[in-house]
Amino acid sequence: EVFAIIKVNLIAVFFLGILCFGIFLSIKQVSPFIDRYNGMSYEMSAYNPFTPACLISLISPLTPAVFPDVFSTDLSMNNLYFGIILLVLFIYGITRPLSHNSTVFLVVGIVALLIAFGSYFFLHRLAYEVLPLFKTFRHPGNLRLFTILSFLLVTGIQMTHCELTDKKNLIRFKHVLWIIIALIFLSALFSALMIFRNSTDSTQVNLSFLSLKRDYGLYGPLLVQLMLALVFLFLVYLSVFVNKKIPVLVCILVLVTAEMLIFTQMNASYTVYYAHSNPVDLQRHMRSQPRGFPLPDHHTVAENTESSIAYRQFVENSNTYAKTVSVEKCYPYFPDGYRKLMRDTALALASCNNNLIYRAEEIIPAGKRGTIDVNPASDSKIVFVDDTVYDQFDDLQNTPHITGDTVIFTRFSPFLIEAMVQSATSGLYVLLQNNFFGWKVYIDDKETDHFTVNHTLIGTILAPGKHLLRYEFRNPCYVRTTLFSFALFIILLYFLMALSISCLLYTSDAADEEDSVDLGGRRII
């Protein structure tokens, strides 16, 4: 059985590897530009764990949602809830004899949970020291998703093997259900007592839903959801032990669906930030935005900030939704050059006080950066270039803006930026984009050299006159590799299915031969 499991998993890894050819290639391509692939400190890796205190979310996800600061982790990392009804079924399932698959998934779920604890349990540090590439991952709390999936699989497998139609299983389920009801009732009673105890005047305790969430600390939302949990568990009891007409499975599916809808909506105002606006208004706003990507306007990049967005819900993603280029960022893998620019605060601010494409007025070798103070307000057109490249710009070291020089955008998207540039003299033009692997620059449809300026931005020399300047991101090698991997996967999958069908047909024919009898020269099946 062990060898059979290993064989199946090796086949799965093989097919997964084929599908991931493109991903492997992209990692290889970008790793020289991103220092994070070399690993990070343990403190950074253990950032945002699923702290042990967050286990309360198994019965009350609203509690850590309302008071995220108490649980020492990010709001998106503090919830393990997968349903109070499913939790009861899970606990019932693991009290019955476990199948091999259930044991495997149970172990996987527990290990994932312990690693998700981050620095609160030693397994995360062990994985950090031993597992390949683990040093590149932050937010151990994300691993709790594997715990949820594993526990749900255990629940499904065990409920299949230990159905509630069997009398012994039904008795065991009743015992588990009543024990959990009793524990939740005691917890709710304790929460209610603490609310009255902590109130200045117990006769004036406001038991409304909004007041409980807002005015009584952790015990308020805990009491609310424990009472709801009791209601659903009593309905489960009635469905399984009293109901005689509707199938038990149907009742449980309906109750699980209703529970998920109610508990999700209770948390939604905290987890997706629509407490002060209507989701319909957000959708209407999104639909009012132009399709595609609008051309950049006269605003500097520094002006395209979150304050320009009407809805708080788009914070940290604002300019993704507004489709504007800004200094705001929210992604985990920064190119090394971008990190250097952001640490060079004055130069970063000066760079962002320009439009998406701007002309440099003073070119300085990067080696002198430490000796020159940059004023973000007045020195926005200063550009630092690599010392080895600087020698090429003897005639461009001071090229002030001349009236009539213009940059007019004609096309814009995440992978294609095009502008008509009118200039009376030669100049260095800068695109506020990381000089990342795959970017190519074209002047009048002819590819030209480009280089890195200000630690990470794209610099290009333009001759006098009117030119079509195009920046295009291309990675044909990645595209071909990805298409090849998908084609190879489909071909292998086809042959695997054909082999399986032929084996089944051969087995069926062999069985027919064994079941036939020779009688008087005739074969009777």
Structural topology:
Layout: H1 2-19, H2 21-30, H3 42-45, H4 62-66, H5 84-94, H6 100-116, H7 122-130, H8 144-161, H9 167-198, H10 209-215, H11 219-242, H12 248-271, H13 279-288, H14 318-322, H15 336-343, H16 345-352, E1 357-359, E2 362-365, E3 382-385, H17 387-390, E4 406-413, E5 416-423, E6 427-434, E7 439-443, E8 446-448, E9 451-453, E10 457-462, E11 465-473, H18 476-515, E12 517-519, E13 522-524
Parallel strand pairs: 2-3
Antiparallel strand pairs: 1-6, 4-5, 5-11, 6-10, 7-8, 7-11, 9-10, 12-13
Structural class: alpha+beta
The total of helices stands at: 18
**What integer value in Å does the Rg equal?**
32 Å
Approximate helicity band: 40-55%
Q: Which outline best applies? A: globular
Number of beta strands: 13
Largest sheet: 5 strands, antiparallel
Fraction of residues in β-strands: 5-15%
Given as residue ranges, the uncertain stretches (5+ residues, pLDDT < 50) are none
Strand order of the largest sheet: 4-5-11-7-8
The pLDDT mean sits at 85
Measured distance between first and last alpha carbons = 35 Å
